[in-house]
Amino acid sequence: MGSSIMDSLFQRSLEDLIKGIRLNLITESTFISKSTDDIRREIKSTDLHTKSIALQKLTYLSALYGLDMSWAAFHVVELMSSSAFAHKKIAYHAAAHSFHAETDVSLLATHQLRKDLNSANPFEVILALHCLSIIATPHLARELTPEIFTLLASSKPSIRKKAVAVILRVFSQYPDAARVCFKRLVENLESSDPQTLSAAMCVLCELAMKDPKSYLPLAPEFYRILVDSRNNWVLIKVVKIFGKLAPLEPRLAMRVVEPICEHMRKTGAKSLMFECVRTVVTSLVEYESAVKLALGKIRELLVDDDPNLKYLGLQALKVVAPKHLWAVLENKEVVIKSLSDADPNIKLESLRILMMMVSESNVAEISRVLVNYTIKSDPEFCNEILGSILSTCSRNVYEIIEDFDWYVSLLGEMSRIPHCQKGEEIEHQLIDIGMRVKDARLQLVRVGRDLLIDPALLGNPFLHGVLSAAAWVSGQYVEFSKNPFEIMEALLQPRISLLPPSVRAVYVQSAFKVLVFCLHSYLLYRETLACSPSSPDKFVSESTYLGSDSVIVAADCQQDEVFNPRASNESFEDPSTEDVEDITVNHAQTPYSASIGKDGFTHEAIGNLLSLTEMALGPLSGSREVEIQERARNVLGLIELIKQELPGLVNKEGNFGRGDEKFPKIIELMHDAFSRELGPISANAQERVPIPDGLILKENLGDLDMICGNVQPPTSSSFSFGILHSGEKVGLPQSKGESSEGSTESTSLLAEHRKLHGLYYLPSEKNDMSNDYPPANDPKLQDNLNDDAKDLVKLTKQSLLRKKKPDHTKSRPVVVKLDEGDEVPIAAKKLVLKEDLLSGAVRDVLLGNEAVSTSQTNLTDKLSSKRKGKKKLSTHHSSGPKEVLGDVGNPNMGNPSSGRSKHHDHRKERQHSSPRKDRAREENGHKDKQKSSHRHNRHKSRQRVDGSNDVVTQTPVIPDFLL
User: Fold this and answer.
1) What is the pLDDT of residues 891-928, one digit of tens each?
2) List of residues 6+ apart from 783 with CB closer than 8 A
């Protein structure tokens, strides 16, 4: 007792705690820790005032600093039982803040909550209702449903509106409560108190959003509120509900369209007007006059200076676009100007609307406008634009793309935009197009070559995936290349050490494919040359490049194949006039591609290629990265085989010997393996693979973490500029004594490569590139860009109009599609069981279904047993479900509330007379129990028969007088 007095005398209040925190900014954590220790001591006090102040301070610290206060849960329940309202308020606030579904002691609060819900003090009732709306669990909701049912009919509006608000939480935790309380909830729709009506509409709106079909029988009540109410908040909710109900019942839409349009014309509240507009453009699109009125209101929102209203107008326009694209075209100038708005949300909405207008006739024009716009946009919005273009163009397996050469060039140009971070999407589409569209592979190799020789991409980690895709397509479809030696040099350039291991592994594998292709072409060349010994020089000049005509082989050769490895690319001009003739460097510094590009697949060219490959991949054979090491050793193994079988080729000395038949067969087999067609794979392919019997992956791999816990993953810096692993060098390998000259040699090679390819950037005067976009780094581009939004509108004035589909001289390429679909399956979300039970309970009440759950029957018994002194309330509750059944059983019923309905039939009157007779028998001491029981059973059986006749189809019924 003495300690409690001392604690009370010297206890710090919440105000003292706040002042102490502000004074101890430097040692705040120490002060809070000391205060928490004091709170732990004070909260154990037997004095409720001391305990309440300690709990108040603990709640403050938990809310502000996130301190765990679960250890004080029992003290919270203990303080709830205090008779002082100030203590009770602190305890309920702490419970609402700290209690959750796993709080065990919440079960101990059931009795106190029930006691406070039945209190004569309205403030205690409101306090308990507020706490229950936050901490309600299935147990609390089940046990306190009788009290909530009683409070729904309270004479005090402040209590009734709180009870209506808490019923949503009770329904979500205990769906069977709807069988008891839902009718009382509907009765509150006729309340004269605007706050109670607003609360009831909010609850019904939330319920109807989840399963609108179950609430169709309430359409008459909603219609009455739509016509009679003047509360904007209530009207917003009822308009939302009709937006969900109208598509389910067309006759209902015909009846509500005029009141909704009337509200749209007369209301001055922008929120209500927007909700009416959204309902019209989503659920009432069949009514042209309503749609035109809604579009006029959307136009008012778009031209408003308030950015919030402008954003709402763009949202409404986005909803209209799928069915009324002409409405978007009428407002295209506003949409385009919104791309330059300062508000990022407005810019995003305008971009989404613009992408909804894209079709196969205007995709090129709109994409050109947007790609040019990314240059002057901030990085975030730039990537939003790029992502929108990529997702729109690839939709439904590129259904709007007619010219794939243009789209592949667009992907390459997007990769060079300075702020581009969409490397993964571009990588996926480059590979996907290569496997699906055969006619696009020629342009893919072109774009891939340009990407591989661009050094600006090597330093951008977001574009490493693009380089991986470029390397893959260049190796997989190397037969479409003008100069495979140039691709080989790009794949083996020294600066690929800047790339991550996964990308470098793709580079090495692609180099392997290119090497096999060059060796196979060289063998074909030798075989054909052996058949035409009279004019070898003429043959070499004709068969150097992709653009060469097919070589006519003498008939006496009798070979199945002739030397024309790139016959599919006859349309290209001779590249000897491009990037090769203008190279003026010393002979000792001549790059391999320059020296071998003029001679074709000769001894010298192949020998230089093998030497380059061996020097570049030699250091990688000792790499710590397994993928790189394995693939590099495969290539080096092939070169070693060539040295053994054809030493003259490596030494650039002579021709084939007679015993060289083994090597051509190996090259031919490898070429056939790499040339095999690769097609797209369905996203569902793995799911169709049967799991072998006895294979339990989780069980077999469950101990993997324990086994490999000490294994350190490889660091991503294995390709950094520091000391490299196992002799792996940046640049070409160095011999002993050349360490000081290594960096100079690497720099000179890089300089030669830059001279060869024009600083690695694409020349802007290429006639063979069908690309309407100027290079991203062209300085002329930024001079021509105008920041004024009016110029952007001019650019899109023609492109946004619907055009006739142009007559293409070349038909659209064939795009491979899989029969089972190419989209990644989206797992259907399982319906939550509680929502199913709630919808079923509401449907049973509104349709008059007699099937009442056992838990609801037990709940009714418990309710009547706890109301011994309130017989009238008990009888009203026990007859509640019967009244609901009787009310909704009549399809001509306009109001679900039985007490206020003007439409009654004789069967309902008989059902109401039975409870009155039961009350009379109870007041007379329950005389003649056997007769009463017999009559009750007969009444129940008759009611089941009537119920089965009333509910046959289990379909919501709307009274005919409304429709």
Assistant:
1) 333 343 433 443 444 444 444 444 444 444 444 444 44
2) none
